[in-house]
Structures are given as C-alpha cells and as structure tokens.
Specification:
heterodimer, A: mainly alpha, two-stranded antiparallel sheet, globular, B: about 325 residues, alpha+beta, five-stranded mixed sheet
C-alpha cells in the first residue's frame, strides 16, 4: 500500500501544477487595473483586439491575447517591462517602419498599460 | 474626459424642456392614479362595514374622473405643445431662421453643410453640428439612402430623414456644451454606430470656429506631414473624400465625409472613435473590424510609415 501511495501523491502534485499559471510579471509603478481603463481611454482597440478591454476588436494590428507569453514585441524587441513601457510611449523611435503611432501615452500611463498586458496569459 | 450628455432627463433647450415636462407630468400622474387604485383594491379586500353602491363608483370613478383628468391633460398639452418651436413658428417660417444647417443622413454617418455667407461653396463637415448658444438654428434634414431619424435628446424630439423629402427641426441650446445625438430609426448594419454631436458654443467661439471652417487645409511645412499629404494623394483617397486645399480633392460631390478639418472634430466614424492619429491609422488600415459593413475600403499597399504620416497629417487638419 505504502509503495503505491507515494507515486500517486507525486502524480497528483504534477497534475495540479499543470493547471497553475505563473503570477503576472510585475511592472514597477504599474497597476493592471488602471492600465485596462487606460487602454480603453487611448482607444488601443482601434487597431488591437485586447481581451477584457471594451470595444477592442480591430485586426489592423496584432491581437494582444496571450501577450504575457510572447518573447518579442513587434518581432524584435525583448518582451520585458522596461522596453515594453518605452515601446508604448514611442513605437516609431524603436522601430522606424512601424505602423503603430506615438499616441501621446505618458511614461506613467505606459507602465500601467504594460502591467495589464502582462496579465494576458 | 467629460462624457457627452445624451439624456432626455437633462433638457438643455426650450423644446426639450417642454417634452421632458410632458414626460414627468404623465409619469407622476400615472403613478398617483396607480397608487389610488391600489389603495381602493386594498380597501375592497378588507371587511365591508357599509354597503357598496356600484353605480356611484362606475359613474364617478369610471366615467367622470377619467373624463375630467383627460380633458384637463388634453387642454394643457395642446396649449403647451403649441409652444414648441416647430409648432409655434410653422416649419416654413422656421426654415427662414437666419442660421440654417443642412444635414444629410447617410449609411452610416451625417453630412453637415453650412451656407457660405459670401456666396462661395458650402462649408461641409461631418458628424458634428456647431451652433451658437441661445439662438434657434434650423436643421434641414434629408437622407441619401434609407430612412434615418435625427435625435438629440437633450435638445429636441426626433425627426425622420426621408429620402426625396426635406424635413427639419430646430435646435436651440440654452447653455454651452456637447450634446450627443444618434440615428433613431433602424437603418441597417451600423445603425448603432451612427451618432453625432451637437457642439453649442458661445457666439464668439462659434464665429471663430466658422471662420476656421471656411479656410482650406493649409500646406504643412513639416516633412513628415507633407509625406502624409502625399500619401493621401497617392492612395487616391480623394476618390471618396474632399479636402479643400488639396489639388484634385476639392470637388464637393464625393461619397465620403469631407475631411478638410477632420482633426478639429472630436470623433471619427460617426461618434465611434475619438479623433487622434492612432484611431485614424487603425480606421484607415481596417475600418471593417471597427464598423463591419462600412462603405470605406481598407487601405492596402501603404507601408507603416506612410500610414502613420497620413494619420498624423489628418490629425493636424484642425
């Protein structure tokens, strides 16, 4: 009996781990809740489909579902909190040919928006 | 960010005030009579101490009471609705008001035309009607396709826009503000995204706005903006859109909205998105995922930078 119990416990623990998701990447000074509201306010939905953001269904730009699991932003910038916040403030400065314009996002707002994007598993 | 008011409960003009007074009197009166009837029902279910005389109730509460109440209401509402601008001035006369705006409803946006006092071509805009505060403005209304209806709840009742006919209503705002309105007659797929805003401004602000609207779009000096202007020409956007001041795009008989001062309007796509370079770029690249069924085709064959330049130039056209 004891022999069987141990593998069973290990298996249960492994299966349980499958359902868990990693906690979102923390962005210093960023509130995901506020970021979600800001994304609606800046109307990011005019180009992006963003889960949880009102009226964000457009396909002009890449859909942002699962953003936290992506390795790169815009195909070339490492998906880390600081580069992401910089990207949101001024995309053309980081990738000159991009279609994404600088829409006047402040650095503080960009950190909130980045925090929200990292909740999109 | 202030949310534009679109509420029948917050009238901002004389006609809307009369309409909302009707609503409150009918609602209040109805509630009182309902309470009275329910009280009588409760009393009737209790123990009877005196004999009920049916004829007294039938003639008194069933005939005399409604006749009296409805007659008073009829007299009052006839008198009061005679004070509505459309009734008191007669439509023929109100179309003689000094300020006339013609609005043409289309699937799914509103073309707004002002006469040029100097006799030049009309000043054309879209989805935004500017009016001076405290003055009655006659809005002549027609439709280019199906039946629409113009409703700005804070300023007046609804008026249908019928193809082949000119209807009209008077807008009169008592205080400055932005009043949202929308199409109130189902007109197809994007009926729900066919809104417009009435911007009521003090007289001097209105005059300044009007003087700006009469100007054509100025040639930008910035190289990036010039590139955007060139993208507008290269993409043949002028096949559908007028921009006064751009050679080949200043003819006014285009099917799409006049964009001469698009950056000065608060919204694009008939109240769907607020105007800034981001929404403009998204709209140009893919209007269909924002407003499925819209007549505008998605732009293809423009590189990212050209699209950004175009959107930035349009934003600058205030």
């Amino acid at each position: 009996m004891r022999v069987l119990l141990f593998p069973a416990a290990v298996l249960t623990a492994l299966l349980a781990a499958c359902g868990e998701t990693a906690p979102p990447v923390q962005v210093a000074g960023g509130s995901a809740q506020q970021g979600k509201l800001l994304m609606a306010q800046y109307q990011c939905g005019a180009c992006h489909a963003i889960p949880g953001v009102a009226a964000a269904t457009s396909l002009a730009g890449p859909p942002l579902a699962g953003f936290a699991r992506r390795s790169y932003i815009a195909g070339r910038i490492p998906n880390l909190p600081d580069p992401l916040a910089q990207w949101l403030v001024d995309p053309p400065a980081m990738k000159p040919g991009t279609m994404m314009p600088n829409v006047g996002v402040s650095p503080a707002d960009a950190r909130h928006m980045a925090a929200y994007l990292y909740t999109l598993q | 960010m202030t949310v534009p008011l679109q509420s029948v409960l917050h009238p901002a003009g004389p006609d809307a005030a009369i309409i909302s007074q009707f609503a409150w009197v009918l609602f209040g009166g109805g509630a009182l009579i309902f309470a009275l009837v329910m009280t009588l029902v409760a009393l009737g279910m209790g123990k009877q101490t005196r004999a009920v005389r049916p004829m007294r109730w039938i003639v008194g509460a069933g005939v005399a009471f409604p006749v009296a109440v409805l007659s008073v209401l009829l007299a009052w509402s006839t008198w009061r609705s005679g004070q509505l601008t459309a009734q008191s001035a007669q439509s023929a006369q109100s179309s003689q008001l000094p300020l006339v705006v013609s609005v043409s409803a289309k699937m799914w946006w509103w073309e707004v035309r002002y006469r040029d006092p100097a006799g030049g071509p009309d000043i054309v805009s879209a989805n935004e009607i500017h009016i001076p505060v405290g003055r009655a403005v006659y809005v002549g209304l027609n439709s280019a396709d199906v039946i629409h209806s113009l409703w700005v709840p804070a300023l007046n009742g609804k008026m249908d826009a019928v193809p082949g006919r000119v209807t009209g209503l008077t807008l009169h705002a008592d205080k400055a503000g932005i009043y949202r309105g929308q199409c109130a007659e189902y007109c197809g797929e994007q009926h729900a995204r066919m809104a417009l805003h009435v911007v009521a401004q003090p007289s001097h602000e209105y005059e300044a706005w009007f003087a700006r609207q009469r100007q054509p779009a100025a040639l930008p000096t910035d190289a990036f903006l010039l590139r955007g202007r060139q993208a507008f020409i290269d993409q043949r956007c002028s096949a559908c859109h007028t921009i006064r001041g751009v050679a080949g795009a200043d003819d006014q008989s285009r099917p799409g909205p006049d964009l001469t001062h698009v950056g000065g309007r608060a919204h694009i796509a008939a109240g769907t998105l607020r105007t800034h370079r981001g929404t403009l770029a998204g709209w140009i690249a893919d209007p269909h995922s924002i407003k499925p069924g819209v007549r505008m085709p998605a732009a293809a064959g423009m590189d990212g930078e050209a699209l950004r330049a175009l959107a930035t130039w349009l934003e600058s056209l205030e």
